[in-house]
Amino acid sequence: MATSFSSAIDVNYTKFSHSFTHPKKLPTKRFKISCNVTDPQKQNPSLAEQLKPLSNTTLSDGPKKDTQFKSRPKSTWVNPARRKPSVLNLQRHKKASYEYSPEIRDLKLFTKKLNQCDGSEEAFLAVLDEIPKLPTRENALLVLNGLKDWEKAVLFFDWLKARKLFPIETIFYNVVMKCLRFGRQFGVVEDLANEMIDNEVELDNITYSTIISCAKKCGLSDKAVEWFERMYKTGLMPDEVTYSTVLDVYAKLGKVEEAMSLYERGRASGWEPDSIAFSVLGRMYGEAGDYDGIRFVLQEMKALGVRPNLVLYNTLLEALGKAGKPGLARSLFEDMIDLGITPDAKTLTALLKIYGKKRWAQDALELWGRMKANAWPMDFFLYNTLLNMCADLGLEEEAEGLFKEMKGLQNFRPDSWSYTAMLNIYGSGGNVDKALELFEEMAKSNVSLNVMGCTCLIQCLGRAKKIDDLVRVYEFAMARGVRPDDKLCGCLLSVATYFEGEDLDRVLNCLEQASPKLFAFIKLLDEEDTVYGSVKETFKSILNNTAVEARRPFCNCLIDICRKRNLQERAHELLYIGSEHGLYPGLHTKTSEEWCLNVRSLSVGAAQTAFEEWVESLTKIVERKEALPELLSANTGAGTHKYSQGLANSFDLHVKEIAAPFTQSEDKAGLFVATKEDIISWVQSKSPAVAVVA
DNA sequence: CTAGGGTTAG
């Protein structure tokens, strides 16, 4: 079992073991805090002290049957109607289930009545008064368990307490708390917990894990941590459920160090993490995009011989998607299949997302084929994920087929996600007519246009220079309450570079609605008396208020707009500010043999601007007779996307325009090279004075 | 199914 998923883990493990910060070395802040809250009156040992004897005695060798984790107490539930059957009884009354016991059936009916009655206290108590006979402890639990509304559970619980029919034990509180958690009533849960303390009713691991998970569900992480620390204060050791619950609290807070610290302490105390704990950790590392962390989880699972189940595989695949690692995801998936686990829709969704995002077309299509061949389960998410995958891979025909299939399904229709994926496909493929057709179809089928669909349409209509349709779609979206986001603003900015004159003004009008600040900035750039300081200040403020992924597109587009309006100086200023802001990491790289200008992430205008700047600085170096490397190169990239291929071509034109001595490499499209000699003689030819001095 | 923990869209 452990060996079958080893193939995924063993990849490059040596490298991994060097780069991963082992949890043992992590700070233990969390535990210092839990020590600080120790009640001075009780003088209980700190967690570390509590765990010490355990780690010395139970960690290393041999069977650990004496630790509490092996023998967790089972539910104390007793079904009053199901007595331990004798062998004879078993033979004769095989079907004698409690459902047919009249007493239980009555109780169930009574519970149903309680569930159905009016929510008011009076109505509930009125029904409660009709109870056939005063309940025993077990019957009371049966009723309590069957109540759905937390208000009713609390009323019934109060009624039980007032009647004093039997002592109210921990289990009663636990059952009520579970119900309160469902109703997200942390305040009431906390009151009950304090009541338990006051009444000296024992709080056990079930109580604590319910309190903690309730706080978590209510988004009160600080309360969750607080109650975990209170638990330590009492000297109660967490069991495996409490561990996973608290690990999840830290994981959802993104507190990786705290989670790992707890993990390590738990391990030292003899806790054996199970698939749920690993699922929590895997998800946490996925959210952090931490590949080494995910491999640590896989390694630990292997070392402990934990056999992953479907949910754990799904979580790990999802995490690998977030970390952007298709290779490990693929081998993990194959391990899962080899183990005989049938993937569900979530598994396939996770995997297809990775393949699509990473443009692993072959693997994506192969998997899609296997899905059909094996009739693996499909659901709504999976259909839309397949459509998105088609968009990522540019599979227009496949998407059309799938979309048609979706329209014929019984259970659901294509929704705005599905339409958005199709708009994305038509938009990036430049298929304006089909995109517009889809837009009309959405209105007819009552599917609302979301902001991404709107962005895809605007992009597409902009490229096709269909200004009337563009404005119409934009106004439609705004009227339907679509709220422009940074991506839509970036799209409008990029579209603005396709238009001139009156049409440009119409695009800018749209932009003004979406972002008055951006619109004002464009006006500012246009004004002659604008000083650099105010450009810088305004632009920095805009960038800081923009989603990270939209910052570089903003800068690129604004530079393009400046160049279109012959504001070259402004274009250089924006590039400078953008570089200072870290938008173009790795733009310049230098080795002793070669200096390289990497413009792959720049727009046409930004690339030209960067190139001009570079050439200017090379010229100065030649003029000052400073050292140059043998080779100089500018890289535009070949462009894997349909619309990014333009960069190499326009760059080529620009190079020729300014007669720079760079030539495009024949082996590698988008790579422009010049030798040191080329540059020197070119500079000298431009300014003969330099040649004379030389 | 019987008191507590983990997974799904740009």
Briefly note the structural class of the backbone: mainly alpha
Instruction: Give the strand order, joined by hyphens, for the main sheet.
Output: 1-2-3-5-4
What would you call the shape? elongated
The average pLDDT score comes to: 85
Oligomer: single chain
Radius of gyration from CA coordinates = 33 Å
Number of strands: 5
User: Percent of residues in beta strands?
Assistant: under 5%
Unreliable stretches, pLDDT < 50, 5 or more residues? 1-97
Helix content: 55-70%
> What is the terminal-to-terminal distance?
75 Å
Summed up, the helix count is 37
Main sheet summary: 5 strands, mixed
Structure notes:
With 694 residues, the chain is an all-alpha fold. 65% of the residues lie in helices and 3% in strands. It contains 37 helices and five strands. The protein has a five-stranded mixed beta sheet. Strand 4 (663-664) and strand 5 (671-675) form a beta hairpin. Helix 11 (186-198) runs antiparallel to helix 12 (205-217). The protein starts with 5 loop residues before the first helix and ends with a helix. Mean pLDDT is 85; it is low at 1-97. It binds one DNA strand of 10 nucleotides through helix 8, helix 10, helix 12, helix 14 and helix 16.
